[in-house]
Amino acid sequence: MKRVLSTYQQAKNEEFKGHPLSHLICHEIKDTLFKVVDLDPNIYHVAGSVGKGRWAEIPWVSIFLKNLTTSATRGYYIVYLFSADGSGVYVSLYQGWTYFKEKYGTKIGRAKIQKTASIIREKLNTIPQNMSLSNIDLKGEGNLARGYELGHVCGRFYDVSDFPSSEDIISDLQALLVTYREIEGLIGQRSIEQFNDFILSQEDGQFLEDWNNEEEYQLAAQTFIISENASVGYEVNQKRERPQPIINQGGQRQWTRHASLASKAMMLSNYTCEIDHSHQTFISKSTNKPYVECHHLVPIAKQEEFRYDLDQLANLISLCPHCHRLIHYGQDEEKERLLKKLYDRRKDHLKKVGIEITFSELKRIYEISNI
Question: How many domains does the chain have?
């Protein structure tokens, strides 16, 4: 690594093809890593690059878990990034840029990849104490160097003037491999793309339909800023095709709810309970309005059974906390009474947006006995 830092600047003025520095980075360092860290070639892939056809501004050597990715353009891996000015090398737990650029475009993608890195850092429990560096500066001038900096999750800088021993470098890598395997566990049975979609879902104002996310969803709905131009009628609803689900850690499909729609539904109800507008509640600190919660009349968890999107204003009900809990946990007779009242009010609105359901079917979904 020190040889790379001391000779790369000069090498960039020399013939690219067949240069010994290319062999050093792409083969010698690779072979050394497999040997001294005892990497299993059946599990790990190691690759290095000095550029394609010409010298790269930032040479690198990467370590990939084969079952996650073997491409430096997407996914998660460990990489050694050599600073453009030869001042040092970063060891980084890293995420590829291409996914974000393709999905969001360059400008928004930059913000998304940084947010993903921040979220993942918060989720990881095994980041080594000396690997807590959250930002890197590769001293580069090109767009690629900027992209490399954005993909950094955590790591450490080795200054050429105070370079660590080989034993320290090996120890650092072994510790970072543990964190890398933790990311593998977080991803679970999902693809990289599915995992990134999951990570960013709440950042995009979407919350999974399960009860583990219920409090965060209701809180986000309370704090979401409503546009002054928000529509105030159900006529704005249109038939929207069923969206793509989010894949959870176990590989199961789950559907998301938008906090912005929940907030709008509560505003349309004038922050009152739609079972009975006279129901008393407390004043929310976030909205300075009576506290109500948002409920999907046709549960979002049943989205698979419907062609059209269930996360629509026509299907969103504003309820006081008491009625919300009752409709989930109350006795069948009381649940049926509340549901019938809400169903009669909303069935025509539901039909307009393609959500066609009988009251008998709604009772079945809520597991209400016909006896």
Answer: 2
